[in-house]
Amino acid sequence: MKLTTITWVTVDGVMQGLGGQDEDRSGGFERGGWATPYFDDEAAAFAYQVFQRADAFLFGRRTYEIFAGYWGVMPDPDSNPIAGPLNRQPKYVASTTLTEARWAHTTVLSGTDAIRELKAQPGGELQVHGSGNLIRSLLNHGLVDEMILFTCPIVVGQGTRLFPGSGPDLALDLVESRTTAIGVTIQVYRPGGRPRYETAASNP
Description:
This protein is of the alpha/beta class. It has a single domain, classed as Dihydrofolate Reductase, subunit A, CATH 3.40.430. 22% of the residues lie in helices and 24% in strands. It is built from five helices and eight strands. Strands 4-3-2-5-1-6-8-7 form an eight-stranded mixed beta sheet. The relative contact order is 0.23.
């Protein structure tokens, strides 16, 4: 399966608590709900198309529990373009501590090898929404085929970032880019291996 990550981030790279004030207050985060004003018709249409093409979903534990507590209990999920696919399609959660998955059609996976085996199965697209720690691990192990970033024109100044202050480097090849009327940039990337760096001073 093709593994695609989908992440909403701020200009300063924060991905925590995008959906609501109380969605994720870990670490004392107090500025949740920053993405909601930017979920306009254009961004929504693109996001709905992404969800509709998913054959399965893979989550880290924290994101899984947030999604299960919201999308997993939504009445009449098939009437919603996000809740419908999330409830119909198989779901996998990468966790070494989760013992019981309360959301239907969920399988708990432990370790990178299990994810690699899942990815090797026939199928269309395996999607990872949120799940920053998982995304970083998948990138480090070369398991990501495509990355979609919804970058909102806001700096929140605190919270968990998609990429920390230091870590492995990675080149990205831009596949598609668009900007909504209110300034959300939607960029589709493919990992391109290690970046190339200048090794000698340029002549004046």
